[in-house]
Amino acid sequence: MTTVTSNDIQELKDLLSAMRQENREQMISLREENREQITSLREETREQITSLREENREQISSLREETCEQIDTLKEDNRQQIETLREENNKQFINLHKEITEVKIITAKIEGTIQSQAVLTQKIPDLIEKVGEFKNWKQIAIVAITAFTSATITWFIREGNLKP
Predict the structure, then answer these.
(1) Rounded to whole angstroms, how far apart are CA atoms 105 and 113?
(2) Between 20 and 30 A from 35 (CA), which of 10, 19, 73, 133?
(3) Which H helix or E strand runs over 23?
(4) Closest C-alpha among 116, 133, 114, 113 to residue 125
(5) What is the band of 44 on the pLDDT scale with cuts at 50, 70, 90?
(6) 118 versus 94: which is more confidently predicted?
(7) CA dist., res. 99 & res. 103, Å (int)
């Protein structure tokens, strides 16, 4: 076996120390490279984020404008539809008012006719009673001929009109 001398140990120590120093320098160099890469990546990422933000802002602005235009269009369409419906409702209201007025006039005429005929209706029982009082057909014939004659004379007086 070989013996290890203090020189050998010193050489090993120096070698280890040199290797440590070299490893430290490599680590420091790698750290610096990593820091530079990280800084570069951060910068790229920030630029990308800024670019994306700007694109998003532009898209949002464009969408807002389009949405505002669509809302304005819908508002105008709704206004026109409401105006059309108002006009139609007004026309229908006027027509209904006319029809109601016509119905009132007709009702008033009917009521007037009923009232004028009420007097005649009240006389019917009296006439029936008088007809029942006739004792023979001669009297009935005389009344019928008299009624026909008076109706004919009245008709000539009115110039041939049957209207009241």
Answers:
(1) 12
(2) 19
(3) helix 6-133
(4) 133
(5) very high
(6) 94
(7) 6
* Whole-angstrom distance, CA of residue 149 vs CA of residue 141: 12
Is this prediction's pTM over 0.70?
A: no
Q: How far apart are the C-alpha atoms of 130 and 140, rounded to whole Å?
A: 10
Q: In angstroms, rounded to a whole number, what is the distance separating the alpha carbons of residues 59 and 57?
A: 5
Judge whether residue 162 has pLDDT over 70.
no
DSSP string, 95-152: HHHHHHHHHHHHHHHHHHHHHHHHHHHHHHHHHHHHHHH--SHHHHHHHHHHHHHHHH
The C-alpha atoms of residue 125 and residue 51 are separated, in whole angstroms, by 108
Place of tokens 């090993």: 12
Q: What is the DSSP string of 44-85?
A: HHHHHHHHHHHHHHHHHHHHHHHHHHHHHHHHHHHHHHHHHH
Cα–Cα distances (Å) from 23 to 8, 10, 11, 18, 31, in that order, read 22, 19, 18, 8, 12
How many CB atoms neighbour CB 150 within 10 A?
Answer: 10
CA distance 58 to 28: 44
